[in-house]
Structure formats: structure tokens, C-alpha cells
Amino acid sequence: MGQVVLRNVNKFYDSVHAVKDVNLQIRDKEFVVFVGPSGCGKTTTLRMIAGLEAISSGDVSIDGQVVNNLPPMDRDIAMVFQNYALYPHMSVYDNMAFGLKMRKFARREIAKRVQEAADILDIGDYLKRKPRQLSGGQRQRVALGRAIVRHPRVFLFDEPLSNLDAKLRVQMRVELKKLHQRLGTTAVYVTHDQVEAMTLGDRVVVMRDGVVQQVGEPLDLYNSPANRFVAGFIGSPAMNFATVTMMDGNGRLTAKNAGLELEVPQSQIERLRRHVGREVTIGIRPENLHVATNSDPAGFTFPSKVEVVEQLGSEILLDVRVGADTMVAAVDPTIRARVADQINLAVNPARLHFFDAQTELAL
Amino acid sequence: MIEGARWRRWVFFYLPMAMFLVFLLFPFYWMIITSFRPDGELYRPWNSVNYNPFWTTRPTLEHVRYLFEETLFSQWLWNTTFIALVSTVISLVCGVFAGYALSRLSFPFAGSLGTGIFITYLVPQTLLFIPLAEIIRNYKLGDTPWSLILTYPTFLIPFCTWLMMGYFKAIPRELEECARIDGASRWKAMLYIIIPVAIPGILSAGIFAFTLSWNEFIYALVFLSSPEQKTVPVGVTSELIRGDVFFWGPLMAGALLGSVPVAIAYSFFVEHYVSGLTGSVKG
Amino acid sequence: MAVQAIETTFGEAPPPRRQRLLEDERWLAFMLLVPTMVLLGMFIAYPFARGILLSVTNSRVGVPGQFVGLANYYKIWNDTIFRTAVYNTFLYTAVTTVFKLGLGLWLAMLLNRDFRGKAFTRAFILLPFIIPTVLSTFAWKWMFDPTFSVLNWVLYHLGLITGRINWLGDPDLAMISIIVVNIWRGVPFFAISLLAGLQTISPELNEAAAIDGAKPWQRFWHVTWPLLLPVTMVVVLFSVIQTFADFQIVYVMTGGGPANATHLFATYAYQIGVGTGLLSEGAAISLAMFPILFLVVIIQLLYIRRVEVR
What percent of chain C has pLDDT over 70? Predict the structure, then answer.
């Protein structure tokens, strides 16, 4: 079992309110990722689950038992740290065995479990080495091994991949995913990298300034972000935003500013009608833009001027100017566009996002 | 690094270096040569003819023999070793604990306590030796090794604490957090993880503390009175001088042999000693 | 804000299985600090208070005294030997510190180069600092012996002197001798500490300055010295405290003589408090060091804090 529930959890450092009223229920065997910019409270939340930070108010419970006052050693959890935190004076074997020794496991059981974990992670050859004799990727595996030998109720990960180089990071990400599928242990994972969050998480928790912005499956976050922050944080390159005014004309709704005039799709008219005459923020993902062709309805195209062309091979990123705004469009690699070209861009009507200009909530 | 013409190298590097070495090491040479030189050669006036003060053709162990057979020198050596070892161990235990608490735990008044310990680190022994002598007498500790074993920690603990704080601060927090999640209590995490990792620092502090207490003079001079209780520095000072008569041969032999244990401890741990020294200043 | 419905019922937390006092940071810190606090309280704080009380009585050895107010301080203020000792202490501290810093910096710069036998040289250079001061000072006393002085022999054979010099018999020469010994003992400490400071300065900075056209002296003055200043400050303040309260060198070399001309605070306090048994007056003399030491400590604390803030 490994069910973690946070109820109205708050953290104050002196006068700083670092974590605000976090409510979350993490199911057994679930992989939940906390993501957000640095200082958003995600690591503090993880450390409160671990017992490394006192909880200012609210409770954290594991398998129905409130653990607020339980020291970390009694919570039956394991944690992997960003800098791995391998004990430098112990061999790899002793690093992995330490937690079991502290819990007074029999020597034979310890040997069995360490061997098992070493086989899973393919580190059997290094068991006698000291951490400083290992490469970054090997250290990462040992840190993982140290967590899994314990068979804990919950794994906690604090940005475990951020010290690896880009290539190794992608590889370890896949291995982590496999490992979770194999072991099925509940995992809480903190990262600032939205790609890691999207690829690893069964569910993703987006945080900002100590407040949970949205909780959902990766695709829900991508398709229907709850607010402008989540919309901008999830997805790469980031969503384009422009401030527009809602205009009502001939029964049709248009979103308009100095350089842009887009029709509001039928499906959204009902919801947006009450914003007529007001400013809203329109959000368009770069991958939902393409160079307009004759088949694109006129209401969903707009003119733009190319400022920068970035060739990525699989696609082309065009940095374009639209009135007073700049936007990025991810277009087909066969498109031939040069700087200063005037091109018409078309948007996928089903993929338009609207946010309240003041509250930034999705409309 | 050494660039330029050969003469420049001599003028700006070898010559000054040689002068420093002569200045800094000659007294030890003089100590050694005097220890093995017969009295007949020692007490020859400085301006007598055909006298070479820097060498002897008739080395003798007479002074060393005198030291061990006619004085309590071996007893002083033992006293000094015992006192230095025990006070070093006490100070290390206290200093490691206090350094750990001050650098890695958060509790009320941590800052002012740290400052307080830093201030006691700077209190010289000569400020308090008179009232301390009275207190030692009142506790009936006078003329026993315990008068020094209990008072040496007053300058060793602040030093060890200060040094250990520097070492502990450099150890990543995650190490003990990980240990605590792995099932260790705070106490065990300190004992099994942080202290072993800090061993180089503890060695530095220990070597430094040992030499400091071996070298201590004024407390030993004031608190000890009977010859068989004395430490080497005090014994040599008070028992090898009779009124105005200095027994230079045995005195130098005593100085030489009294320095040997420190020099040996030092030579094994030069690097630790140097890092202790620089750490003691920087913290 | 999206909030999940909370399904589980919250069971009451069971009381902690064991009462673990040491899991509480504050208790653990307290327990770890107790031995230190007890020892420092008993043998530093208490003697300090005791010393102040002692200095306002007329106690002698074996005779509990009565309260006499500031009479002891008044007495030493009018004592010419005490005044000489104060003058000596300031002179001794100032002169030796200047020389120790100058020579120590020079030696540190020499040691900061690469040459064969560097580690060896560095190890030997520290000897004056680690060998018990009393013992090595005896070697110096023997070198300064009025009749058998090897220094006189050298100076005579170099043709610099014709008669003997009575190094420790003349007040001024005795002071100079003492100062030389203190410099000898202190230079290694300065050199090694400053060397550690020098080694933290990236050579790239000096190379960059050289490319910018700075001459060696300008490089030292504009790059090395400012970066070395924090270490230098700490080392100097440290040494000032130790030198100001010095005892051993003077005790062995001259015992305060000739004719009480070379006393420092500490040796005079020893002579009065232990030698003649006037406990309270001796306590007053050593406590007279306190205001100056306190000032230096405050400067050091402020300086360290300022460096840390940066």
C-alpha cells in the first residue's frame, strides 16, 4: 500500500507563506509529478511528505495514518535526492544496505535484497566501489538502488535527473518509467522540467507561488489548462498569448486587436458571449499554427511578418510579428520562409484557448 | 612560474628563501648541536681562539643520560602525554558535538551561542590564570593532572568547535536527510554518516589540539608544584635551572626530546595540521 | 484551483511509538551542547566573574580579602612598572605584528611558486610554530647568552663588533631580543595562513591583469592584495590577541628583567599574583588587558560578519 493524502497543507517560513492550502490525494501505485518554476513550493511539499520539514498546518497522511509528528525514519518511505546524497565513506553495497541495517534486517536478507536491486539496475559490478569512483549515471543508479532495496510504501524523488547531461537524462527517464511499471510503488516526483512531468506522471500537479494551479493527467493539462500559467508552462515551445477584445457582429463573435482578428469557434460562443466588449487573453500553441492555404476558413487566418527562422529539421519554428505581439509558429519543414516575408498563418479553431485577462482563469 | 634570467631567480627567490630557512631553522640546529656537545666545549667564551661553535668532533650522550637518570624527565614526558591525550579526547568529543549542533541544527539562540564560543576561543590563558588558580585550589585539584585535563579544554573546545563547524557546514544536508529517511534517528545519522564523513576534520582538530596542549605553559606553571607532577615545558624550566645556573646541555637535550613527540605527530599529519591551522583562522 | 475530493477518512494519529526526545532538533542541540557549556561555564565564565570580584578585594594567597573597591586598579595605575609593562606590551604587539605580516607575506609569496621540495620546505618552515614555545625560546636564550653567545661569535668574526654584546642585560637590547624571538615564532603562522589565502586566488586574475598591461608590483597591489585582505585581517587580529597576552617568551628570556624593564601585562601579573602572592592585584593587572582584547574581538566579529554578508 502507498496512499498519500495531503489535506490543507501549509508551510510558513517566518513571514513567508511557502505552501498554501495544498489538497491532494495520491492513490496507491500512482506516479504523481509536482512541477513548477523554482521557488513554487514543490520541493517543500515533498519534504513535508518526507518529514524533513515540519508541517505548519494541515495534515499529511500515509495509508490513512496522519504522519505529521512521525520522524522520517518511521514513515517507511524512500527518497532520491538531486545530488544523490550517496554516503561517501561507504561502498555501493553499504550505501544500499544502510537503510536495511538501520531497520535491523538479517544479514542474509540484506544481501538478497541488495543483489536483487543491483540486478534490476545493472550495477552488480560496482558493489565494492566507493561513490567517488563512479560516473554520474552510475551514482544515479546507486541512489535509485538504495531506495528500492527498502521496498518502501512511497518513493520520493527530488529532481533526481537534473544533474545528468541531456542524453543520459532522457535514458534515465525511460528507465525510471520502466522501473515504476515493474515495481508498482507509489511515487511522488518533483521536477522543474515539464517534459519530465508529462512523460513520467500518471498525474501532474502544477504549482506556482505555493499554490496548486491544476492537477490532472498530462494530456488534460495540455488540452485544457485551467489557467494561463498552466497553459504557458506545459508544452514546448510555450503557448503564444495575445490580448484581444471580444466583438459581437452579425451574430458572430470575433476576438480582435491591432494585428489580429479571429473568429470565435461555434463551440465556444456560448461561454464567451458574456465577455463581449471586454479584454480577454487568447492562447495559441505554436504547433496549432500553420501557413494558411486556400482551404483554411478566412476567419481563422491572420497576416504576420517573419522575424527569425529556426530550422530544427523535423519542423521549423517561425518567430513572427503579429501587430504588436510576437508569436512562435511550428510549421512544416517543407515551408520555405525567409526573414521579412509576409505570410498568412492559420489556426486550428478547435485548439483556441481563452483566458480572463484579470483572473487568468480559462474561459 | 619562475621566469626571467638566472640571476633574477637567485636574487628574488633562492637567496631570500635561504635566508628565511636559516632564520627559522637555526635555533633548532643550535638546540641539537648543544645537546650532543660535551660541557668542556660548551662553556668556552665566544671570542676564544680556534673555536668552532657549529660543529663538534666529540659528540656525547652525557646530557641525555643526565636528563633521564638525574631528573624526572621521563616522568614529565609521561605526564605531558597523558594530559595532552585526555584533554584532546575530551575536547574533540565536546567540540564535535557542539560544532554539529551549531552548524547543522536550528534552535533558539544558535547564533548568539556560536558567537559566544567564538569569543571564548579568543580568550587568552593569561587573562584568567589567577582566578582559575584559586578555583583549582578550592576544588582540591591543585598539583594533579586533572587541574590541566579539565582546564585545557577551555581553549581546546572553542577551537575544535570552530574548526568542526567549518567542516560540518561543507557536508551536504541531503546526506543526513537521506539517512533519516533510510531509518536512522537524528542521533544515528550524526554518528554513522556525518561524523565518519568529517574524519579528516576531526583528525586536523585532534592533531592541533594535541600540540596546543603539549605546548601549554602558564596553567601548568601555576597549577602544578611538585616536580613529579610537572609537564615537560614546566619541568625543563624549573628543574634544570638552579638559581642563576643554567645546565645548558641537559636543558637543550630536554628541549629537543620534549619537542620530538610533537614533531612526530606533526610529521605524520602535516596536511591535516596545515588545514587545521588555516581552518582555525578562517572557520 | 483544482481540488480532488478526499475520500479516505482521517484516522487519528496514534501517539508516537516511543517518546523520542532526541528527534526534536532543539533537544538534541541542547544535549550536544551541555558538556561544552558546563566546561566553559566552569572554567571560563566563572573564573572571569571570580577574577573581577577578586580584583576589588585585597586577597592574598590563603587570606580571604575584604572589599576595597577600585583600590587595586588605582594602585597599579600609579605603579611605574605597570606603566612600563603597558608601554612594552603595545610596543611589542605593534612592532612584531608589522614584521610578522611583512615577512610572512614575503615568505608566503615565495612559497606560492612552484619549485622542487616545496612540500618539504613548507613542512619545515612551520617548525617554530609547532615546537613548544618555551623549549624553543630556551634555544634563543642560549644563543643570546652573555658569555657564550653564538651571535656574538658570528658578529665578531664578521668584523662587525669588537667587544661582546650583553643582549639580555641591557633593557633596550633585551626588548629587541624578545621581539626577534616573537617574530621568529609568528612568521610561519602568517606565512602558512596567507599562503592558503593566496592559493584561493585564481591565477587567471593575475594573467588577465598582466594582459591588461599591469606590472608585477601593480598586479600585487591591485589584484592580489585586495583579494588577500580578508584573510590578512583575520590573521592579524588573531595574532594581535595572542601577542598582546603573550607570556612564555618574556618569562623565559628575561623574566621581566633587567630591572623590570621588559615586563608585559601577563608576566607582571604573574610576578605580582603568583610570585609575591598578591592575588587581587595580580588579577587586576591581567584584567586590565580585557578592554583592549575586547575591542579587538569586537572588531574581528564585525569584520567576519561583514565578510560573510558579502
Answer: 92
Contact between B177 and A72 using a beta-carbon 8 Å cutoff: yes
Q: What is the ipTM of this complex?
A: 0.89
Q: Which residue of C has its CA nearest to A214?
A: C2
Measure the CA–CA gap between B54 and B258, rounded to whole angstroms.
22
CA distance B31 to B255: 7
3 state SS for A251-316: CEEEEEECCEEEECCHHHHHHHHHHCCCEEEEEECHHHEEECCCCCCHHHEEEEEEEEEEECCCCE
Q: In residues, how long is chain B?
A: 283
Contact pairs from chain B to chain C, CB under 8 Å: 290
Q: Measured between beta carbons, which residues in chain B are less than 8 angstroms from residue C283?
A: 130-131
Does C115 contact B13 at a Cβ distance shorter than 8 Å?
Answer: yes
Show which of A198, A233, A268 is a domain's final residue: A233
Residues of C in contact with A5 (CB under 8 A): 6, 8, 10
Q: How far apart are CA B160 and CA B153, in angstroms?
A: 9
With beta carbons under 8 A apart, name residues in chain C contacting B100.
32
Which of B60, B85, B105 marks a domain boundary?
Answer: B60
Name the pairing type of β-strands A279-284 and A289-291.
unpaired
Domain range for B162 is 71-282
How many residue contacts between A and C have a Cβ separation below 8 Å? 53
Q: What amino acid is encoded at B21 in this protein?
A: L
| Residue A19: domain span | 4-233
- Within a 10 A sphere around the Cβ of A196, how many other Cβ atoms? 25
Same domain, A272 and A189: no
Residue contact B278–C196, C-beta within 8 A? yes
Which domains does chain C show, CATH number per domain? 75-309 (1.10.3720.10)
Put simply, the answer to whether C10 touches A214 (Cβ < 8 Å) is no
Does position C10 have pLDDT exceeding 60, yes or no?
no
Phi, psi of C280 (to 5 degrees): -70, -35
Count of residues in chain C:
310
- Is there a single domain that holds both residue A219 and residue A259? no
Contact (CB<8Å) A73/B185: yes
Q: What digits encode the pLDDT tens for the residues B129-167?
A: 999 998 998 888 888 999 999 999 999 999 899 889 988
Interchain CB contact of A227 with C (< 8 Å): no
**Same-domain check for residues A112 and A226:** yes
Give the pLDDT confidence of C104-161 residue by residue, as tens digits.
Answer: 999 999 998 888 888 888 888 989 998 999 999 999 998 888 777 788 788 887 877 7
Yes or no, beta carbons of B277 and C193 under 8 Å apart: yes
